[in-house]
Amino acid sequence: MKTGLVLEGGGMRGLFTMGVLDVWMENGIEVDGAAGVSAGAAFGCNYKSRQIGRGVRYNVKYANDWRYKSYRSLLLTGDIFGAEFCYEKLPKELDPFDYEAFRENPMEFYAVVTNLKTGRAMYKRLTDCGDRDMMWIRASASLPVVSHVVKIGKYRLLDGGISDSIPLHFMEGRGYERNIVILTQPQGYIKEQSKMLPLVKVALCKYPKAVEAMENRHFMYNRETAYVAQREAEGTAFVLRPDAPLAIDNMETEEDELMRVYNHGREVAERTLSDVKLFLAEARK
Prior knowledge:
Blueprint: E1 2-7, H1 14-26, E2 33-37, H2 39-48, H3 54-61, H4 71-77, H5 83-94, H6 99-104, E3 108-115, E4 120-125, H7 131-140, E5 150-152, E6 155-159, H8 168-173, E7 176-182, H9 197-203, H10 208-215, H11 217-234, E8 237-240, H12 255-283
Parallel strand pairs: 1-2, 1-7, 2-3, 7-8
Antiparallel strand pairs: 3-4, 3-6, 5-6
């Protein structure tokens, strides 16, 4: 029975996920495949490359570097998270990504993006995290209004969370019968329609299907969390989530705040470690 992992996005809330994954790597916890959305893809790829601590390290070190994330970057480049810095300079020079380890790890890893022309999710399997794979990760994590539309071949892409925030259905459809889901919102969270919708309608006026997806995103998200809860009750999903709202802004630069979210992820992972091991062991009988 194949075991899967679903990684929700959420900007800097993704440090919670990174805390969980670092504890897992320290304890040899592995799955057969994973799908990451937005920050879930951008941070989660470090799990496949087995780089303990990398995700939190560069987020803390470069939190105040305008090239990484800033309104200055938005004004100068059109991306609030600087594309060249995040997907070129950072992984290749400043905090090297282990491309070889990523390639050699047999775990499947998918990045979820939104096809703006259709308003639907696409799922790209990443094989080497080279330049083209990095473009798919960039697309997965590119938020409407504050990011350029990412062009890959004939596709025009943005944040995977617009169309599929928690891709549990996708993983089950790929044959992953038992899945661990890492959420970045606490139990009982209900998403409401985005207050950014008027700006989205202007920014994506050429993509009416994507605008429609944004209008209905809260309905999609709440259906997905209900489905996760159903699968959790049935025993085919194991869910890790924060104990309370993480209350961190995407533009947060204070090390204490970034580490607070990361350390909470570690706490939840350590608390549930034996249960996660049992869940995976039962799947592999």
